[in-house]
């Protein structure tokens, strides 16, 4: 089976009601992004950071995968599919996809703030005083701005094998994730689904669809299946 890589971002989850931040104002739910998604913010006010992600976690319980998620999952019947997502939600999993690399972490997991290898399932709130087995405070299992992206090398290796790379709902402005597009083979088909002008130079080889994630996947699905 041909290897199909899906690189997904906030745009696909936004259609399920997951709120996103925009680089334009630097705010996320009225918070400065550095206050709630950086090591500096964690050191400054752990309570604020924990409550911010507790709210995100509660919201995630209330939303469902949308048609774009389900269509991506359906592609596993026709391709060897690997999803590389910048999203921290579990909507790809709930839609039925099985091979998912969360390069920015997972909202339904927590970890020790001293050892990110101590990871736990976390469907409820994390409070001050909740400890990992090493005695350290639990924190969201999220890659914050300014932190290393441990799964990036694995993502690079996957992208290099792709016969088709479909980029959905990401502006490709956040690095290092944006650099993945440069790893594809010369004969890899590149398709970008994004309703907004990203300012990213895809070059002439990319098929750019200025559509929402759901509409874009509806238009693309049969065409992809015909290439399988």
UniProtKB/TrEMBL annotation:
Catalytic function, reaction form: N(6)-acetyl-L-lysyl-[protein] + NAD(+) + H2O = 2''-O-acetyl-ADP-D-ribose + nicotinamide + L-lysyl-[protein]; N(6)-succinyl-L-lysyl-[protein] + NAD(+) + H2O = 2''-O-succinyl-ADP-D-ribose + nicotinamide + L-lysyl-[protein]
Active-site feature positions: 104
InterPro entries tied to this protein: DHS-like_NAD/FAD-binding_dom, NAD-dep_sirtuin_deacylases, Sirtuin, Sirtuin_cat_small_dom_sf, Sirtuin_class_III, Ssirtuin_cat_dom
GO-annotated molecular function: histone deacetylase activity, NAD-dependent; NAD+ binding; protein-malonyllysine demalonylase activity; protein-succinyllysine desuccinylase activity
Ranges of residues in domain Deacetylase sirtuin-type: 1-228
Keyword list, A-Z: Cytoplasm, NAD, Transferase
Residues binding NAD(+): 9-28, 86-89, 169-171, 194-196, 213
Enzyme Commission code: 2.3.1.286
GO cellular component terms listed in the entry, alphabetical order: cytoplasm
SUPFAM superfamilies registered for this protein in UniProt: DHS-like NAD/FAD-binding domain
Keyword Iron part of the UniProt annotation: no
Pfam families cross-referenced by the UniProt entry: SIR2 (PF02146)
Domain of life where this protein originates: Bacteria
Annotated localization: Cytoplasm
Function: NAD-dependent lysine deacetylase and desuccinylase that specifically removes acetyl and succinyl groups on target proteins. Modulates the activities of several proteins which are inactive in their acylated form.
The record's note on its domains: 2 residues (Tyr-53 and Arg-56) present in a large hydrophobic pocket are probably involved in substrate specificity. They are important for desuccinylation activity, but dispensable for deacetylation activity.
PANTHER family xref list: NAD-DEPENDENT PROTEIN DEACYLASE, NAD-DEPENDENT PROTEIN DEACYLASE SIRTUIN-5, MITOCHONDRIAL-RELATED
Alphabetical list of HAMAP family matching this protein: Sirtuin_ClassIII
Protein name: NAD-dependent protein deacylase
């Amino acid at each position: 089976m041909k290897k199909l890589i899906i690189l997904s971002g906030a745009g696909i989850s936004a259609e399920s009601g997951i709120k996103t931040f925009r680089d334009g104002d630097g705010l996320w739910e009225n918070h400065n992004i550095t206050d709630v998604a950086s090591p500096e913010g964690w050191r400054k006010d752990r309570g604020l950071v924990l409550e911010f992600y507790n709210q995100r976690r509660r919201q995630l319980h209330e939303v469902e995968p949308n048609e774009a998620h389900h269509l991506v999952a359906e592609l596993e019947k026709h391709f060897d599919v690997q999803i590389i997502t910048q999203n921290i939600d579990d909507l790809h999993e709930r839609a039925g996809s099985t091979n998912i690399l969360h390069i920015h972490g997972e909202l339904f997991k927590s970890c020790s703030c001293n050892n990110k290898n101590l990871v736990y399932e976390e469907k409820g709130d994390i409070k001050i005083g909740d400890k990992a087995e090493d005695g350290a405070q639990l924190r969201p299992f999220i890659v914050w701005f300014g932190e290393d992206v441990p799964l990036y090398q694995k993502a690079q290796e996957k992208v290099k094998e792709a016969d088709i790379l479909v980029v959905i709902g990401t502006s490709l402005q956040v690095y290092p994730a944006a650099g993945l597009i440069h790893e594809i083979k010369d004969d890899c088909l590149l398709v970008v689904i994004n309703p907004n002008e990203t300012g990213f130079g895809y070059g002439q080889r990319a098929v750019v669809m200025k559509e929402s994630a759901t509409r874009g996947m509806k238009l693309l699905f049969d065409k992809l299946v015909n290439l399988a």
